[in-house]
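Quick question, first post here. What does this chain look like in 3D?
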Amino acid sequence: MSIDIEKLGLAGLLDLNRRIIRRVEYLHSLKTRAHLDRFEVGDRVSRGPGPNSPRTCGTS
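> Answer (accepted):
Ran it through. Tokens below.
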């Protein structure tokens, strides 16, 4: 599918932008869901606010 953005006005570009953002967020949520589905109750997990921050460990 090809969209000629040169033919779109401001309203059309803003609508296209909203649709693209919604699609990217949807695809990101699918990826996140697939990643989370790999975990099962009882799995050991850890998380931290950043790469150089202390990690918190526990059981899901």
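The beta strands are 44-47, 56-59.
The CA atoms of residues 5 and 13 lie 7 Å apart.
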